[in-house]
Write a structure and sequence with these properties.
The chain has 83 residues and is α+β, with helices and mostly antiparallel strands. It contains two helices and two strands; from the N terminus they run αββα. The protein starts with 9 loop residues before the first helix and ends in a 16-residue tail after the last helix.
Length: 83
């Protein structure tokens, strides 16, 4: 019940990151060891409190982002810097 929204919410980013991790895990189980050509619906991790933009990525694309330490972002979104 706050009348002022924080510009960024690290907890929110953590939650979204976890949601995406679960999507990834489920997708992995579904695809098994087969070729990764399907797109899965991840969620933008920019950290804006009201952002729930779906981002379609293949598992390979998602894993590449993770390996680079980069968040999942919708086109035109940039991560709110929590640091
Ligand atoms: Zn976003």
């Amino acid at each position: 019940m706050s009348d002022r929204r924080e510009k960024h919410d690290p907890a929110e980013q953590d939650i979204l990151h976890e949601v995406n991790a679960h999507v990834h895990e489920a997708a992995r189980r579904f695809e098994g060891t087969g070729p990764e050509r399907d797109r899965w619906e991840f969620t933008c991790e920019c950290g804006a409190p009201d952002c729930r933009v779906p981002v379609s990525l293949t598992l390979a694309e998602y894993e590449a982002l993770g390996a680079a330490g980069r968040p999942v972002l919708a086109p035109g979104h940039s991560k709110v810097d929590a640091l």
